[in-house]
What we know:
homodimer; alpha+beta; six-stranded antiparallel β-sheet; 5 helices; 32% helix
Amino acid sequence: MGADHGSDDRHTAATELSDVLRQSIDELVSTEAPAATLKATLETARETLGHLKGCRRPPHQLASLDAEARGHRIHNPAAGEGNPIAPPLRVYAVDGGVEATLEVGRAYEGPPGYVHGGVTALLLDELLGSAAVEVGRYGMTARLSVTYRRPVPLRTPILFRAAVVETDGRRTKVAGTVSPLTAPHTTLVEAEGLFIQPSDDTRRAYFDGLVAADGSPAPDYHVRPSGPDDAPRTP
Amino acid sequence: MGADHGSDDRHTAATELSDVLRQSIDELVSTEAPAATLKATLETARETLGHLKGCRRPPHQLASLDAEARGHRIHNPAAGEGNPIAPPLRVYAVDGGVEATLEVGRAYEGPPGYVHGGVTALLLDELLGSAAVEVGRYGMTARLSVTYRRPVPLRTPILFRAAVVETDGRRTKVAGTVSPLTAPHTTLVEAEGLFIQPSDDTRRAYFDGLVAADGSPAPDYHVRPSGPDDAPRTP
């Protein structure tokens, strides 16, 4: 990124803002505050919304923060540091595949004390897709099968692992597991995903009209999930 | 709810606050605002977070808004009106199953212009689980298989449908589809889910220590997704 401090500053501010909103969501879904407190909170929350309004990129324009500042999708709903919906899942390349560790918070709760099964599926789709990207095989999800053996506890370090198991033309099959970080041989959930790289014709049909952040026609868009970070996983 | 205006007020405020945060997320993931604007926004966002802090229920305590005010889980990450992460998906009972319609926003974007495959899986898990609840068969997800035929467009009314297809003891199999609302015979995505009602022993093991909002031992907790609303779907 070097001299492009404008993008760096925007990336830092967007990431911090995302983190504050993420913490606010965690408090909101946990709060027993009285109605008066919630109403007072509503006022500052509306101010924040007011500040943010009026600067939207058009529907078919890519985010400049994606294009200029990072080279990955910072607003991805599973892995994006710039999306308060994402925990975010930080996926790292390891020998033979990808990994991520995460303590899932209350905003993702399904049965009391456990991660919503659909949230686990969301994170696994992102993880498995990143494993395909890691071996240079971008693709869109064609099938995702998730088997839930035991519930995934909230507020507990969880280890996500995935690796490509089969490739065939534009098809990439990936398998993954979810385990407690302290018991990596215990499988709570396992998943298999099939990712297909769209043909040139399909890609053109899907992404026709897409423009880059500066409004110029987007370069031939390769379906690219956020992919694993380059940095090694900190143990 | 009748005379319990305290809960009604809190439910209204929590729902409004959730909605404002949800709109803020949508703006944040869409914004091209300069760094200075984002930094100014950060100040009011931090005030909101400050207001919310200090009123958290303990980890194993159910939310009073769930228990007193509504009878469903308002903080559910897919369907909860009180969780900014949820679009929310509003599931209604219909003849023979359940339905929901939703325009999915940019915060849930995967490939540019389309819903993240994992988000579709999240919504389908909630939908299929609600179809099981609708016939009185609460269960936790044991398997979820999603087949993606075509990408699901953002900002387009989407129809989600699901119905129970097989029951066997504590097992309930549910099938569902995702279609454009204007082309309900076109299947974009289809899914099958297996939901298993935990045995009494398993349920006790999973939910041991859970307490109700007033701190008393939780009643025998039946694994209950938010389930469909009673109100008919507005066409």
